[in-house]
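Trying the structure run again after the queue cleared.
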Amino acid sequence: MKGAAVTELQHKLTNLVKYRKMGPYIEYIRFPFYKSVKPGTRIDFTYPITALVGPNGTNKSSVLRAIMGCPDGSNLGNFWFATKLDPIVDDENNRPAFIHGHFNAHHGSTVEVLKLRISKEKDPNYWEPSRPIRRYGMERMPPLLPGDPIPPGRTKTRWNPVDKRVVYLDFRSMLSAFDKFFYHGDMSRRTATQITRRELIVNRAPHLKTVVEEGKAFYKFHNVERVLSNVQLSDRIVGEIGRILGKKYESIRLVEHSFFNTVGYSAVLTTANRKYSEAFAGSGEFAVVMSVYQILERAQPNSLILMDEPEVSLHPGAQRRLMEFIEREVLERRHQVVISTHSPCIVRLLPQHAVKVFAELPSGEVFIPTQAATHAEAFFRLEEPLQDRRYLVVEDRLAAEVVMKVLRDAGPAYMSKFEVVWYPGGATSLWKRFVPVFVAEGRNDVVVILDADQRPAAPIPNASAIPSADDGQLGEVIKGFTGCAVEFAVDGGAGGGDLQQLYRLQREYIDWSRLHVEFLPGDVAPEVFLLGKLLGAAAPTTSDAAKAECARLAGEALGLSLVEQPNSNDIFYWQRSALSKISIGEPELVELRSLLDRL
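Done. Tokens:
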């Protein structure tokens, strides 16, 4: 029931975007020239909660800052600026820029807003909206006749940015007043008679205690006003914090102050058993207090909420409940949320079209391979490859289990050299979606092992053996061994695309496939192989018939009635059990071991 409820909620959230029920909303962002993001990269926001996923150094936080800069009122130059050590190289034709699209109700369509890094009042790091630039693929502004009033949502020369308030939550720097001072406070100006950090906190804690217990909104210490705000959190906020952390709080007070020589927040939490401040709370506990407070108290309806690594210091259960809280708030108050994360737990809770995976090319450029990443693909990108380890990518769970059977028999040391990954969608999905990414990234640690019935009639050719006069036939060559048409993203041009770039990509695809694509032994799909070993001559001989028979046998093993259907997990667990009964000495498995030895 829980899975069905989540699916229904995801359906509702998707429809909020699909039918434009979100109010002002950033539909996409694209990057003509921005940091190390590959020019032309685009991110579509088809779900109100989007996860940016990828290894460290793939510009996720930089993209998050660019999204923050889409509405008016936020200058990206405050976060990304040139120094002598790290200059920003640009020219008039390639200024750092990003473009966001949002729906303009008066115009009746999605409009694009360009923000450029320009020099303004001797500040070379200032970003501001610009008129459309045609070379970035932007449309000209609809002309205005002399004397015509300027329609809503635009100026004479450009469209207005999306109208949204921004709440930016950086969980890595979400430090309490205590942590800010005790671990990072400046004591460089202290004299020999001045006190240590610990002594300063001890001496000033009584003043902070008075502020907390008496609810003071003002308090001077050393002739300096120390209290900026002092609030008792509402029952709603306290309840949500407790639900996320799995604790029951009686009350929580939040004080913004400068008693510790730096402006920061102190949280005083009260449970049935004790009362304590953020100095004794965990960093995750304080981060949840601050994030829930910001979302419920500071975020207006239709806000843009940006969260940088919310999983920091939170265990998986708390991460899951934080996401459930965010989903409820998005449904109720129509927030748009974008999350930069390394957490498989967070990724697992989102639909595929909400997960945007960042991948890095050998050139160092970062791009988004697909607008709808499978969870397996996201986890694959988050994995840190071990030295000399091979990733074996197969079509489905049964194929993965066949490979794992051979690896287990070979022993743990042998097994540790491989990681088996399966992606849903079958061979066509691998050829069209994943192999192009592996080629672009130069992934020499990946081997794709397709089912035996996918083996082409002729071996994959050597691209160098194909004469350049036949470049126009390279697409057909690829279709010959993949069985499908594979598209390649190339730079645009007057002729519809850079043909030389296309031919180079096609040749790289052919050569990578020749070296990195293998096939399971035999000539049948894994289901046919499995039933053939179990049932002999009575076994089905086609893949579809074998899948139907596996489903029937799984239902029979579970004692299901004729009107009940086993689900995919039921079928797989039956297949796994049946596979365990097959001898490791079968010729196909011996041949598979030889293949793994070669790898």
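The first helix runs from residue 2 to 18. Worth checking whether this holds up in the mutant runs.
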